[in-house]
Amino acid sequence: MPVEAAVAPRLEISGLSAGYFGQPVVRDLNLRVAPGEVVALLGANGAGKTTTLSTVAGLLDPIAGEVAMDGASIAGRPTHRLAREGLSLVPESRALFNSLTVREHLVLARSGEGDLPQDLIVEMLPELEKCMNRKAGVLSGGEQQMLAVGRALVGRPRLLLVDEMSLGLAPIIVERLLPILRRVATELETGVLFVEQHVPLALQVADRAYVLSHGRLVAEGAAAEMSEQQDLLRSSYLGDEAADAVKGSPAEGRAREQHNGGDKSDAS
Ligand code: ATP
Question: In the chain, how long is the greatest CA-to-CA distance?
């Protein structure tokens, strides 16, 4: 019987330490994203999520460890080269040019024959159509975020990294934006790794999730299962002591109990 060749992960991070001035803020991180998979990277402020994305995107050199895209090492490769090779980052800042129109942003992002046609980008992000000739500086926050995502899609990325797309946006806009990541993954076979503070929404869209706390991985798993582990998520975000203060009982014990399958409330 022929043995099928294993498909390399779109992104594979192994034993990564990353940080600033040689001081790690992310330690020994292992994380994978498959082609067509949507993966959420969760954690409290300062947990190291942006540092992780910046290191994958070539904005920071890793201190230790390996980063590979489709089986080839990309660790320390410069951002502009990674962009040509199919890695797109939507940064938290959106990094738009206020004086350029939406159309100009989309044209400037073109890289060649394999690009997504503008019609398809507008079909995915219909709000952009009416703004084509408007400058980015006068768009609403939601429109700016759609432009940042649309621009990142122009080169048909194999790997899309999205940092806190919902920052400063109304929940209704977030509910509109996050499912676009699912569509991109499904239709383009893009691997998507996104950072998001709206945890319940993130877990609705993601296939899997990783939770960082103080730069270390404290939980990972299928998004549907993680949604059930509210105590674990809470303690990861707040720290066990703060979670205890909120709930008035030992969060660590509950998290461990659920980890071990102690919560059988949904068992038939
Ligand atoms: P947030 O949700 O607040 O953006 P995060 O999980 O993305 O948080 P990071 O931005 O990766 O966290 O920050 C992780 C740690 O690294 C924090 O302690 C932060 O203060 C520190 N840090 C971030 N950027 C720098 C920098 N340019 N120089 C030095 N330290 C930094």
Answer: 60
